[in-house]
Design brief:
This protein is of the alpha/beta class. The chain folds into 3 domains: about 5-60 and about 175-245, HypD, alpha/beta domain 1 (Rossmann fold), CATH 3.40.50; about 65-170 and about 255-300, Rossmann fold; about 315-360, no CATH class. Helix content is about 40%, strand content about 15%. Helix 8 (about 145-160) packs across helix 13. The longest helix is centred in the middle third of the chain and has 17 residues, at about 225-240. The radius of gyration is 21 Å and the shape is globular.
Length: about 350
């Protein structure tokens, strides 16, 4: 389906037509996972599930960067905030995520200097304004945000800004897809691949994953017609038994991706093993700061005494991130755990699956 105008991607007539085509194409149960947290919110916001036949099950995956951040990393953020010489700069979603003993929000209430920023360059500005302090930016995100943080580190080195640091807890999407394919109890028929990450990675960024597992994969955008087009293509692949890696978001995603952003990211970061909430340790799935930028690496610079990480008692966030459970299957959902008083990160983040279920379901 070729659309010429932006408004057509929200056209309810086109959406209904696609939903009918999906119903006609899917003759057996199909389990699809949307990997991106923005897709999860869009699916709920636009009522996509209500348009789909009972044969299609949509599962939300580990696509919320705050949600998959390991408890040990949250504890490290809190330990950094407790240092009197440190000003912590962070995106707002991290503030209320509970660590083992506290949260950034509680630490700020206790007097820690913690500032919400909208860009890592805002943190670099704070470093220039407070030369007597050490400014630490909490680097959380996927391939989408890593290039901008790499750019700030490059700028800091060029400026000789010696009081600017980044704690890198970045994650890479393709290794997580591989982990999901091998995860016990998780049966998937296809992936709705993330739009924003794919702008950086390009279609070719998933090539090795697809060639290894031969599972249906479609990159989609975030409008209702985008998502339904992706689901239709996946249903056709599954029903015909011809898995493919398709790009249904060509207006934003190319085969090769954003080469300049990838080169910048690769110049500053290198792959490393990383712990994901719910998935455990995944080989070469994180990004650590290269030795050439060691002077800006908070993990190297600060000596942190961390508690033994303990997951929130009763929280099913880990199972939700792998598709093993949905939020209503968590005993804490909408009772003990709410957006006003969250127990786990899936209820905290604006891209969290629990937050989406809470907001858009009864």
């Amino acid at each position: 389906m070729s659309l010429k105008h932006a408004q057509e991607y929200r056209d309810p007539v086109i959406a209904r037509r696609l939903a009918d085509r999906i119903a006609a194409a899917s003759r057996r149960p199909i389990r699809l996972m949307e990997v991106c947290g923005t897709h999860t919110m869009s699916i709920f916001r636009h009522g996509i599930r209500s348009l789909l036949p009972e044969t299609i099950t949509l599962l939300s995956g580990p696509g919320c960067p705050v949600c998959v951040t390991a408890q040990s990393d949250i504890d490290a953020f809190i330990a950094l905030a407790r240092k009197p010489e440190v000003i912590v700069a962070t995106f707002g979603d991290l503030m209320r995520v509970p660590g083992t003993e506290s949260s950034l929000q509680l630490e700020r209430a206790a007097g820690a200097d913690i500032r919400i920023v909208y860009s890592t360059f805002d943190a670099l500005t704070i470093a220039a304004e407070h030369p007597d302090k050490k400014i630490v930016f909490m680097g959380v995100g996927f391939e989408t945000t890593a290039p901008t943080i790499a750019a700030s580190l490059s700028a800091a080195r060029d400026m000789g800004r010696k009081n600017f640091f980044v704690f890198s807890a970045h994650k890479l999407v393709p290794p997580a897809l591989e982990a999901l394919m091998n995860f016990p109890g998780v049966a998937l028929d296809g992936f709705i691949l993330p739009g924003h990450v794919s702008v950086i990675l390009g279609e070719d960024g998933y090539r090795s994953f697809f060639e290894r597992f031969s599972v249906p994969c479609v990159i989609t955008g975030f409008e209702p017609v985008d998502i339904l087009q992706g689901i239709f293509r996946l249903a056709m692949q599954v029903e015909s038994g011809t898995p493919a890696l398709e790009n249904a978001y060509p207006r934003a995603v190319t085969a090769e991706g954003n080469q300049k952003a990838r080169q910048l990211m690769d110049a500053v970061f290198e792959p490393a093993d990383a712990v994901w909430r719910g998935l455990g340790t995944i080989a070469q799935s994180g990004l650590k700061i290269r030795a050439t930028y060691a002077d800006f690496d908070a993990a190297r610079h600060f000596d942190l005494a961390l508690p033994e990480p303990v997951e929130p008692k009763g929280c099913a966030c880990g199972d939700i991130l792998t598709g093993a459970k949905t939020p209503p299957e968590c005993a804490l959902f909408k009772t003990v755990c709410t957006p006003m008083d969250p127990v786990g990160p899936c209820m905290v983040s604006s891209e969290g699956t629990c937050a989406a279920y809470y907001r858009y379901t009864e």
